[in-house]
UniProtKB/TrEMBL annotation:
It is a multi-pass membrane protein. The chain crosses the membrane at residues 5-22, 28-46. It comes from the Bacteria. This is Nicotinamide riboside transporter PnuC. It comes from Sphingobacterium zeae. Belongs to the nicotinamide ribonucleoside (NR) uptake permease (TC 4.B.1) family.
Length: 57
């Protein structure tokens, strides 16, 4: 992450979104909500780094 690889954020969004149904299936609703928040944070990180890349280009 220190090299600011933009695709890392998309990987985290994908992984977080995959875990949400798993935790719902196991009836761990608070953990599912937590991973939903993680997905939102990762998406915001992706958008922020994307803006940074556009400013340098």
């Amino acid at each position: 992450m220190t090299r600011k690889v933009l695709q890392n954020w998309l990987l985290w969004v994908f992984v977080d979104l995959c875990y949400i149904p798993l935790y719902i299936h196991k009836e761990l609703m608070l953990t599912a909500v937590l991973y939903f928040v993680f997905a939102i944070i990762a998406w915001n990180g992706y958008r922020d780094w994307q803006k940074t890349y556009k400013n340098f280009a």
